From TrEMBL:
Gene3D superfamilies (UniProt xref): Glycogen Phosphorylase B
Catalytic reaction list: [(1->4)-alpha-D-glucosyl](n) + phosphate = [(1->4)-alpha-D-glucosyl](n-1) + alpha-D-glucose 1-phosphate
EC class of the enzyme, as a word: transferase
A single GO cellular-component term on record: cytoplasm
Protein name (database record): Alpha-1,4 glucan phosphorylase
Keywords, in A-Z order: Carbohydrate metabolism, Glycosyltransferase, Pyridoxal phosphate, Transferase
Any Pfam family the entry gives: Phosphorylase
InterPro entries linked: Glycg_phsphrylas, Glyco_trans_35, Pyridoxal_P_attach_site
């Protein structure tokens, strides 16, 4: 403890912080200073990595003054802050976005040129922080970008994983995971504040005692603890001077090592505690949409949530703040169930530490949380065994039991005699083992519960939480997801952005509905030509990236058909693959003259959870089909399949702007929303998709004529399921489908091995939980319509322009506006 700060007497000490001068000269000075003093090298002897780090720090220095200023103003204004609690943030590279937000692109470009350096090369040196799996983590990153841009106070809270999502490589076509060493070459964007570290307790037991007033109270006596060290990241708003905070926690041992053991010579034992503690933030769990019920995962969840609540209460609020009014200063948004342990944690703080009664604590807690659900898969809803939860967090389990008692009392009062209902709604599951249903806990405690697209929110109410929505209908709402137009249009698609700005002005970047003004230009041949030219430029840029990055050659003049997302059976990459195999089979068997094949390149990008066998087998099969099809001279180069490894945000930014066709083909009722679907539409790809997630809203907005709908809708899926689904009948009845599956079974893609892909094929034939075979014919028919439209270049481009013009709704700024108005009740700052 350094004691209280002294009152400064020097005028400079109290003046606002100034960043480097906003000029090419100021930039160069700062850059060289960083290179010399932080990197410790002269320009002439510096490596590209030195230069990148110095550049990143230079840009950070510009933002720093604004960050300090934002913090000061927010604190002074004592306004309500959004505390976004998320176990994942899939940020993507930081440099490009920081340059854009601070309007430094031109200055940096010129300044680096004066130093004999090239901005693009330095930008490519950045390793993206992959601190998330997929949609849920990327959504969090888009949301905090939008809040900063809209001038809304927000702190994103999460975990600083030392290893993010694994790096995917292919060995003989099979996925092999490599550790993601994103910190290895330096981490210029973060700044740790070890002095603001927080202690987090685990284990032990609880004891009752009587306080001074004779009231019974509880005391938690934990038996181990770790330290949470905050690492701050700046979240700059677009050209508005606001810089919000992303605060990620890193776990450290409270004691570096056990000195007596160390002195006794058992060095390994002496540091064991340290290793154990640091494991908590070591690695991101690579499961997407399906939880891993592992103890370390629960440790991670409690760790970051406990750090965040403590941090906000102790460091962001005034010392004398009355916590009865906590909801006037923060709304804690629970990004799925991962942070839901924050609910009993806040109850514990208020009761055990601040002396609140139960009812007082509950009244505050229920005003401070809102919950977003991101899934419909029943197996994706987290349930923590009470045995584990009680061992790790005994006090929290007690509180959860008490919350549940209160819930059941309310239910019994509302529905007397309906014991079955009470049992259904219990937060405590009794089967297959005693466990805590985190989604129920969140729903009971939250002011609002939302799904992430209209259809999803409807199904959430009707199928996942029907009893809760019946009892508290007003608690449920929908906020359809969105994506940030800064990163995914302005930055990722510079040519299209320029064309849009030249046509309707630059306001669309923060007011995306203005893309509507492009509608009339869909009929302007000149505009269409420029639009198509931008698409071509994006394709050439992608070709260069894929050649360098993956050794993949992208043929000219092909329809670029892209399916990028996590590998999951419900997303149905296998359906896309069956279409490819079928086209190929028809050509090599002579049923389809090769010159009638629309030249097409199909690009897949997908990581599979390391333990998800079916997903990994599917990756293997895609790679084998890719190799076979691309190499077969009978196709005359008219069909190609490419599967670049390690799909991530960085690749998405190149791939999405180049795409013609966006594949959004999940079984209806399974994809909560999707956000890739929005990015494609905004970049002028046409969608082939089912009536699922946000596809429904995309289709409604862009119009049926400009969207290729296929497959069963959700009620039809439910009906077929109820009737009894028999995938084999589709195989028997559809010669085209049969021929495709038979070709796989023949060993054609596996060097004659007729059993290599048995698991994938027989899963489709015998079970096919996600009904790919049922939707096959409809999908193939829709693809024929795609080809017909594509053959008419003008018609295709017209549809593409209309997709852009009508997709402004899918800005994450709009999503944030809806959260603010209906859920958070916060105010932007002026
Ligand atoms: C995903 C959903 O699968 C996706 O449809 C949605 O767009 C995204 O969340 C953002 O809302 N869900 C997850 O990634 C997940 O882990 C538990 O859900």
């Amino acid at each position: 403890d350094l004691g209280p700060a002294r009152t400064p007497t020097h005028p400079v000490a109290t003046a606002p912080v100034n960043g480097p001068l906003f000029s090419v000269d100021g930039f160069v000075k700062e850059f060289i200073h960083e290179l010399n003093t932080a990197q410790g090298v002269a320009l002439a002897r510096s490596s590209v990595n030195d230069q990148y780090l110095a550049l990143a720090r230079t840009v950070k220095n510009y933002l720093m003054a604004r960050w300090l200023d934002t913090n000061r103003k927010t604190r002074e204004a004592k306004v309500k802050t959004v505390g976004y609690l998320s176990a994942e943030y899939l940020l993507g590279r930081q440099l490009g976005n920081a340059l854009l937000a601070s309007d430094l692109n031109e200055i940096a470009d010129k300044g680096l040129e004066l130093c004999g350096l090239d901005l693009v090369t330095l930008r490519n040196q950045e390793v993206e922080p992959g601190l998330g799996n997929g949609g849920l983590g990327r959504l969090a990153a888009c949301f905090i970008d939008s809040l900063a841009t809209m001038n809304v106070p927000c702190i994103g809270y999460g975990i600083r994983y030392e290893y993010g999502i694994f790096r995917q490589t292919f060995v003989d076509g099979r996925q092999v995971e490599q550790p993601d060493t994103w910190l290895a070459l330096g981490s210029p964007w973060e700044f740790p504040h070890p002095d603001a570290s927080v202690q987090v307790n685990f284990g032990g037991h609880t004891e009752k005692y009587r306080d001074a007033d004779g009231k019974e109270r509880t005391h938690w006596l934990p038996d181990w603890n770790v330290l949470g060290v905050p690492y701050n990241y700046m979240v700059p708003g677009y050209l508005n001077g606001r810089v919000n905070t992303l605060r990620l926690w890193s776990a450290q041992a409270t004691k570096a090592f056990d000195l007596p053991t160390f002195n006794a010579g058992d060095y390994a034992q002496a540091v064991r505690a340290q290793t154990f503690a640091e494991n908590i933030s070591k690695v991101l769990y690579p499961e997407d949409s399906t939880p891993q019920g592992k103890e370390l995962r629960l440790q991670q969840q409690y760790f970051f949530v406990a750090c965040s609540l403590r941090d906000f209460i102790d460091n962001e609020l005034e010392d004398d703040f009355d916590l009865h009014h906590l909801d006037e200063r923060i709304i804690l948004q629970l990004n799925d169930t991962h942070p839901v342990i924050a609910v009993p944690e806040l109850m514990r703080i208020l009761m055990d530490e601040k002396g609140f009664d139960w009812d007082e604590a509950w009244a505050v807690t229920t005003k401070c949380f809102a919950y977003t659900c991101h899934t419909l898969l029943p197996e994706a809803l987290e349930v923590w065994p009470t045995e584990l939860l009680g061992r790790l967090l005994p006090r929290h389990l007690e509180i959860i039991y008490a919350i549940n008692e209160q819930l059941l009392e309310e239910v019994r009062e509302a529905y007397p005699g309906d014991e079955l209902r009470a049992r259904r709604m219990s937060i405590i599951a009794e089967f297959p083992e005693r466990g805590v249903r985190m989604a129920y806990l969140a729903t009971y405690a939250a002011t609002k519960v939302n799904g992430v697209a209209a259809l999803h929110s409807q199904l959430l109410r009707d199928k996942v939480l029907p009893d809760f929505s019946e009892m508290w209908p007003d608690r449920f709402t929908n906020v359809t997801n969105g994506v940030t137009p800064r990163r995914f249009v302005k930055m990722a698609n510079p040519k299209l952005s320029e064309l849009i700005s030249d046509t309707i002005g630059g306001g669309w970047v923060t007011d995306l509905e203005r893309l509507r003004e492009l509608e009339p230009f869909a009929d302007d041949p000149d505009f269409r030509a420029q639009f198509a030219a931008a698409k071509d430029w994006n394709k050439r840029r992608l070709a260069e990236v894929l050649r360098k990055r993956d050794g993949i050659d992208l043929p000219d003049g092909h329809l670029l058909d892209v399916m990028v997302k996590r590998l999951h059976e419900y997303k149905r990459q296998s359906l896309k693959l069956l279409h490819v195999v079928s086209l190929y089979e028809q050509v090599i068997s002579g049923k389809l003259p090769v010159d009638q094949l629309t030249p097409r390149t199909v690009v897949f990008g997908a990581k599979a959870a390391p333990g998800y066998k079916m997903a990994k087998d599917t990756i293997h099969l895609i790679n084998r089909v890719a190799a076979t099809v691309s190499a077969d001279p009978r196709l005359e180069g008219r069909l190609k399949v490419a599967f670049p490894a390690n799909y991530n945000v960085t690749l998405a930014e190149k791939l999405i702007p180049a795409a013609d066709l966006s594949e959004q083909i999940s079984l209806a009722g399974m994809e909560a929303s999707g956000t890739g679907n929005m990015k494609f539409a905004l970049n002028g790809a046409l969608t082939i998709g089912t009536d699922d997630g946000a596809n429904v809203e995309i289709r409604e907005l862009v119009g049926d004529k400009h969207f290729f709908l296929f497959g069963m809708n959700e009620p039809q899926v439910a009906e077929l399921g109820a009737k009894g689904y028999n995938p084999e009948s589709y195989y028997e009845d559809n010669p085209q489908l049969k021929a495709a599956l038979d070709l796989v079974l023949s060993g054609h893609f596996s060097g004659g091995d007729q059993h290599l892909f048995d698991a994938v094929v027989y899963n489709l034939l015998n079970s096919d939980r996600f009904m790919a075979l049922a939707d096959f014919q409809s999908y193939v028919d829709a693809q024929a319509r795609v080809e017909e439209r594509y053959a008419d270049t003008d018609a295709w481009t017209r549809s593409a322009v209309l997709n852009v013009a009508r997709s402004g709704f899918f800005s994450s700024d709009r999503s944030m506006r809806e959260y603010i108005q209906r859920i958070w009740h916060t105010q932007p700052m002026m």
